[in-house]
């Protein structure tokens, strides 16, 4: 359990999406990457990358994370 470090993103839609993912994570009680991956039925690497990489995650992954 813990805070996932955020990528350094310029202002815009990618940063807004990443901030919302992190807000959801915080509101869910800061579950681990493995817990999130299990709940979303996705790989831990994919979930980690959705939070940490500067690129926009796949829509299906984003929706699975937000629903878990």
Brief write-up:
With 68 residues, this protein is an all-alpha fold. The chain has helices spanning 13-27, 33-40, 44-52, 59-67.
Detailed description of the structure:
It is a single chain. Helix 2 crosses helix 3 (44-52) and helix 2 crosses helix 4 (59-67). Helix content is 60%, strand content 0%. It has one domain (19-67). It is mainly alpha-helical. The protein has helices spanning 13-27, 33-40, 44-52, 59-67. The mean pLDDT is 91. The chain is built from four helices and no strands.
Q: What integer value in Å does the Rg equal? A: 11 Å
Low-confidence stretches: none
Number of E strands: 0
Our count of domains comes out at 1
Strand composition percent: under 5%
Q: Give average pLDDT, whole number.
A: 91
Number of alpha- plus pi-helical segments: 4
Q: Provide the helix percentage.
A: 55-70%
Shape: globular
Q: What class, by secondary structure content? A: mainly alpha
Reported for the largest beta sheet, the result is: none
End-to-end distance, in Å?
16 Å
* Order of helical and strand elements: HHHH
Features:
68 residues; 60% helix
Which helices and strands appear, and what pairs or packs with what?
Blueprint: H1 13-27, H2 33-40, H3 44-52, H4 59-67
